[in-house]
Task: structure prediction
Amino acid sequence: MKTLITGIHAVESALKNDADNITQVWIAENKRNQRVKELINHAQKRGLIAHRSDPASLDKLAKTHQHQGVVAEYNAPKSFQEDDLFDLLDKIDDTPLLLVLDGVTDPHNLGACLRTAEGAGVHAVIAPKDNAVGLTPAARKVASGAAETVPFIQVTNLVRTMEKLKKEGIWFIGTSDKSSGDLYTYDFKTPSAIVMGAEGKGLRRLTEEHCDTLISIPMAGQVSSLNVSVATGVCLYEVVRQRQA
Result:
């Protein structure tokens, strides 16, 4: 499936990690800084011609002004299916770490979560197919290459998938400001799936009920909760801290 990647960092990452699936690159004719020159050289080494284009045409192509003067056409690999998740688990040599996004609808939040997940060594990100955002160009841009390296798996029935994964030994830790459990007192050294709720709404009732435990992030100020992508980073890097200790 052809899609577009926008933004210099996202296109750089795609050229580095998955250049075979990039078919065309466009650069705004007024962009001539050193980083753009390096990107053009990078593309040429992979047999791609970086076409110069006027900014207005790029706006129309990308359907956004937020492209930083760099757009690439990308043959997105076949998306992962639910069954692929269990094949992935079989191939994991270390302790599994999954991220579940229960209905995140903002592509910028999805992209930021994917980027953090990649940095924290998450093995797969799981999300429902309905009422949730997929890998849009905006999400890919914010992910800065993580969308091409972290398996993103959308499932038809999230609760059913959770139940199947529990049988594989995965523990589901949901985040909720209603929980009295503290993020920093939970032991994440077991096979774990961190479950994050949607923007503003938090976890859906059924999702919450199927978590093995609920935790909260301690908040010392007046704000009651964090943005989902920020909260995801806080939780995932507590897992990283514990597992490296």
Notes: The beta strands are 2-6, 22-28, 50-53, 70-75, 97-102, 124-128, 152-155, 171-175, 192-197, 213-215. The radius of gyration is 19 Å. The chain has nine helices and ten strands. The longest strand covers residues 22-28.
